[in-house]
Amino acid sequence: MICIKIGIISIGNEIVKGRTINTNASDISNFLTNLGYEISYILACRDIKEDIGDSLEFLFHKCDIIITTGGLGPTVDDITVESIALNLKLELVLNEYAYSEILKKLTERGMEFTPERLKMAIMPVGAEILYNTIGTAPGMILKYNGKVIFSIPGVPSEMRAMLPEISRILGPSGMEYYSLEYDVKGLLESKIASYVKELIKKYNYEMLIKTHPESRETQNRKVTIEIYGYGKSRKRLEELAQQIKQEIDSIILNKL
Question: Domain-by-domain residue ranges, the chain?
Answer without folding.
Answer: 5-170, 176-255
